[in-house]
Design a protein that fits this description.
Blueprint: H1 3-17, E1 21-26, E2 32-34, E3 37-38, H2 45-51, E4 59-62, E5 71-75, H3 80-86, H4 91-97, E6 103-106, H5 110-118, E7 123-126, H6 132-146, E8 158-160, H7 162-171, H8 175-198, H9 205-218, E9 223-224, E10 229-232, E11 253-258, E12 260-262, E13 265-266, E14 269-274, H10 281-299, H11 309-324, H12 332-337, E15 364-365, E16 368-369, E17 377-380, E18 383-386, E19 400-403, E20 406-410, E21 415-417, H13 426-434
Parallel strand pairs: 1-7, 5-6, 7-8
Antiparallel strand pairs: 1-4, 2-3, 4-5, 9-12, 10-11, 11-14, 12-13, 15-16, 17-20, 18-19, 20-21
Helix pairs in contact: 5-6, 8-9, 8-13, 10-11
Bound molecules: glycine and manganese (II) ion (MN) (2 copies).
The site of glycine has 7 residues, from loops.
Length: 441
């Protein structure tokens, strides 16, 4: 992402805020893993979206129309000793020169400087409840300002949810965001394809998790967007199975839900395929049903459709299909009316996708499902899960867990499937799995 794009976003936000306003937003704290070890640092998505600034301990302040500086970045000072151990810091000069801040101060000066900025504004844009430490300091700053009432200092009287504004901006992806998301999905899709070729009975789930991460990292995407789900057989029926500890068995299906993060944008892809490379009849019947539901849902992704249209399309196909296979019993209208599908398909058909895997943005506006518009990115991921012991369901269906998940962006004509490189047709998968890749376990 270019610095010009971050600047455009700040401009857009400041235009919406108007004069007399201030926005305050902190990045994420460093998260401790254990003792002296931290998790790899990942800035807060909202903060990064506005700044492109990757360091921890940073606060951005936007004050539209302020003469001295509209964009102020508080960040760590340079420190040769610490930089020798932990790497370089931008410091105040870097914040201005590399990241385009109009002004920058050491993060340690926040309590001295920020209240002075705050007291000159009528309206504060602030995301309450996201960062408890910042909430506490914000309360202190405000009460400090209120205490000076007799000196004629008033400060903001209006508080507005900054996240609501930012999340609406983030919902509409720009051309360059879509390009990064396309690259992320392409890397993940190719990794899925490789993993299909490496899969065979006897391989451990964690070995395929490792192959997935390796394929993504060596293509330039070092982080996964979320913990990979690699579940064979019964594990495929556990929606968020992440132990990935079992050995894959001949005759089982394998469900892999995994996607890389590239330049802070997520991909989120699920593929399900037979461990031994051939679907048996029951697996094939259910797989083809999920695929049919997924294709029906994808056809509904176009401008003007509402958020729930793809879900309803998938639900209709799945309900009818389960009835035809004898897994749901009764008449179709009654089954649809009673949401009978929820027993075997207990999640929704997708979610917004972007910097966060379950990305931000409202799904309803004024009580109605949101209409899809070009630039919105989402997943389409119907599934069917039949755990062992499911009452009234023949044994041949037990331990089949299937989800097929693609990443799509709404275009002017319909949608673009960003993850199309990951095979999902039955023949395509079986053919690919015959052509085994090199690594042997
Ligand atoms: N990987 C999480 C999800 O599919 O929503
Ligand atoms: Mn997923
Ligand atoms: Mn998903």
């Amino acid at each position: 992402m270019t610095m010009a794009e971050f600047k455009r976003r700040r401009r857009q936000l400041m235009r919406m805020m108007g004069a007399g306003s201030i926005a305050i937003l902190a990045s994420a704290p460093v998260a401790k893993r254990n003792r002296d070890v931290d998790y790899p640092y990942r800035p807060d998505s909202d903060f990064y979206y506005l700044t492109g600034f990757p360091e921890p301990e940073a606060v951005v302040v936007l004050i539209p129309g302020r003469k001295q500086a509209e964009y102020v970045l508080f960040c760590r000072e340079r420190d040769p000793k610490k930089e020798l151990w932990h790497g370089t810091r931008a410091g105040q000069e870097g914040a201005k020169e590399q990241y385009g801040a109009d002004d920058s101060f050491p993060i340690g000066d926040l309590d001295d400087i920020l209240p002075r900025m705050l007291e000159q504004c009528d309206r504060a844009f602030y995301a309450m409840g996201c960062d408890l430490e910042l909430d506490r300091r914000m309360s202190e700053w405000i009460s400090g300002i209120r205490a000076q009432g007799r000196a004629g200092i008033q400060g903001p009287l209006e508080f507005i949810a900054l996240d609501h504004y930012l999340h609406d901006m983030r919902l509409y992806k720009s051309r360059s965001e879509i390009k990064v998301m396309r690259d992320a999905a392409r890397i993940s899709a190719r990794a899925h394809k490789r993993v299909m070729q490496l899969c065979r009975p006897g391989v451990k789930e964690w070995q395929l998790e490792a192959e997935m991460a390796y394929a993504c990292a060596s293509a330039g995407a070092r982080e996964q967007a979320y913990s990979s789900i690699v579940g064979g057989g019964a594990n495929g029926c556990v929606l968020h199975y992440t132990e990935n500890q079992d050995e894959l068995q001949d005759g089982d299906l394998l469900l892999i839900d995994a996607g890389c993060e590239l330049e802070y944008y997520a991909s989120d892809i699920t593929r399900t395929f037979p461990v031994n490379g051939r679907f048996n009849n029951a697996q094939r019947a259910l797989y083809e049903l999920v695929l049919k539901a997924q294709l029906a849902a994808l056809r509904k992704v176009r401008p003007g459709a509402h958020w729930n249209d793809p879900h309803m399309a998938a639900v209709r196909v799945i309900t009818r299909g389960l009835m035809e296979l004898g897994i749901l019993k009764g008449r179709l209208p009654t089954l649809l009316k009673n949401d009978a599908y929820k027993r075997f398909y207990m999640h929704r058909t997708g979610h917004w996708l972007g910097m966060d895997v379950h990305d931000v943005g409202d799904y309803k506006v004024d009580g109605s499902w949101r209409l899809l518009e070009p630039g919105m990115a989402l997943t389409i991921e119907p599934g069917i899960y039949i755990p062992a012991g499911s009452k009234g369901v023949a044994r041949k269906w037990w331990n089949i867990g299937i989800r097929i998940e693609d990443d799509v962006v709404v275009t002017r004509e319909g949608c673009e499937v960003l993850s199309k490189d990951a095979p999902k047709g039955v023949e395509e998968i079986e053919e690919l799995m015959c052509l085994k890749a090199g690594t042997r376990y």
